[in-house]
Structures are given as C-alpha cells and as structure tokens.
TrEMBL record:
Ranges in a coiled coil: none
PANTHER family: TRNA (ADENINE(37)-N6)-METHYLTRANSFERASE (PTHR12818)
Top-level taxonomic group: Eukaryota
Alphabetic keyword roster: S-adenosyl-L-methionine
Organism name: Xiphophorus maculatus (Southern platyfish)
Domain TsaA-like residue range list: 81-230
Record protein name field: tRNA methyltransferase O
Family: Belongs to the tRNA methyltransferase O family.
Pfam families referenced in this protein's UniProt entry, alphabetically: TrmO_N
Entry keyword annotation includes Cytoplasm: no
Length: 268
C-alpha cells in the first residue's frame, strides 16, 4: 500500500472517530432538550392550575375550601406536611456515597430536630432511646429541577431501562424516601462539641469507612468501562479523598481536610 493510501486511511479513521463523538454529543443535547421541554410543560401546568384557582375578584378558591376538615382534605388528595428536622451525614456530595447503607458500616448521620415543631421538643423524644432502630420518611429536597421519567437507567444495569418504581431512583413523583436507621444516641443541642470528625469517631473508623466505600467501587458505569482517567474523588466526613483504581484494586493517593465546618454545622 502506498504512503498516500495509508495517510488517507488514517484520515478516514479520525473522521469516523469525530463523527462518532458528534453523534454522542447530539444525543446528549437531545436528551437535555427533552428534559428542558418536560420541565417547561410542568411549569406551565402549575401556572395554569394556579390561575384556574383564582377568580376575577382576586380571591383564591382555596378560601372557599379552607374550612374543609382534615379527612375531607385527605380524600381529595391534599396533603400538607411539616418537616420535623433535617439530616446531614458524613457523605456531603454524591461521589462516593454508597448505594446501600450496609456497604459502609462505620458511616453515620445526624438528624437535627426542628425546635419550632413543638413548644417542648424534648418531650417528643422521650422513650425513643429504648429502641435500636428508627424508620425515617424523608424528602429528596435537593433534586434540583424535580423532573422525573417513567423509565430510568440504574447504574448497575449497564444502561438497561426499567420502570422508575422498580428502582431506588430519587427522581420520582413526590420525591419521598424511606430508610431504616440504627439509633446511636440522642443528645441535646447544648451537648455539641467540636471533634476532629463531625460523624466518625476516630481515624481508625474513618479508615474502615474509606475501605468500605472503595471495596464497593462507587464509580459510574461510564467511569469504570470507558473513561481513561482512573482518578476518583469523594468526600467523607471532614476529609477529601483522592484515589485511583487499577485492575482489581484501589489505592488512596491523598487524604486532606476540607476545612472548617460550614454554615450548616449544628454546633456553629
């Protein structure tokens, strides 16, 4: 084969690669556009619903139904909830967060009860310490655009689409979740101190948590199969961890503090 033909063959390979990349980008743009269109439609529907409930006198139709009893409101599907508290854990970002609670046993979280729910909030916790576990119903309040699809692609199914109700996807109607949590202790806000770790109790426990996270390989399917960059970053409690994955093993390259506690620190 002449050098000219070899050069043409190389150019054709490069063109095919560029075309493949462009097709993927177009597909991603279409998916992003479809999501934006769905979110826009939902926003318009919410505006139309709000306008339809208001009459020309400026009064809302809700005023006419405000005297409905609680059972009547429930029968019509009108459910109002008040959060009793907010949860923070040693996993502050999505990267590295285990998909199941049993993967990382040493991990801990804190549920801060809102003081405004009861006049005497400490009375609501009397007797709770007798139990080993508690059920927690929570809201995915940081889902962003709050849009959802009937079919999703769970990371562990290698791109297979299944119904959202058969998965643990947080992007679902009503954005509600349920978890079983082990009750460690109940403490008053005045008992807060400032340990080196906010949730973990010792460097040994932090090391065990890091090993548990890495043993489950928290990388996405794309990063495991297609991405050439083997570096992976995640946060655990008050530490940022840098690691890289090889063939059948993971190595921690750096562990550094993330800095002082943020404004959400309950002890601040």
């Amino acid at each position: 084969m002449s050098p000219l033909c070899e050069h043409c063959g190389e150019n054709m390979k490069k063109i095919h690669q560029q075309v493949s990349v462009m097709r993927k980008e177009i597909k991603n743009l279409r998916q992003t556009l479809d999501g934006a269109v769905r979110a826009h439609r939902k926003h318009l529907m919410s505006i139309q619903a709000a306008v339809s409930k208001a009459d020309f006198s400026g009064h809302s139709k809700k005023d006419c139904t405000s005297s409905l009893s609680a059972p009547g409101a429930l029968e019509q599907g009108n459910i109002q909830t008040v959060p009793i508290g907010y949860i923070s854990s040693c996993f502050s970002v999505k990267n590295g967060t285990p998909r199941q609670p049993t993967i990382c046993g040493p991990s801990r979280a804190q549920l801060r009860i809102q003081q405004s729910v009861f006049n005497n909030p400490e009375h609501a916790l009397v007797g709770l310490g007798q139990y080993s576990h508690v059920w927690i119903i929570f809201l995915f309040h940081k889902n962003g655009h709050q849009s959802y699809k009937a079919k999703v692609k769970p990371p562990r199914l290698n791109g297979q689409r299944v119904g959202v109700y058969s998965t643990r996807s947080p992007h679902r109607p009503n954005s509600l979740g349920l978890t079983l949590a082990k009750l460690d202790k109940i403490q008053e806000p005045s008992e807060c101190d400032r340990p080196r770790f906010r949730f973990l109790r010792s460097p040994e426990e932090a090391g065990a948590a890091i090993r548990a996270v890495l043993s489950a390989d928290p990388r996405s399917v794309y990063r495991r199969t297609r991405c050439r960059d083997r570096l992976f970053f995640f946060s655990l409690d008050t530490a940022d961890i840098t690691c890289w994955f090889g063939q059948g093993f993971a190595e921690v390259l750096e562990v550094r503090p993330v800095g002082p506690p943020g404004p959400e620190d309950p002890c601040q």
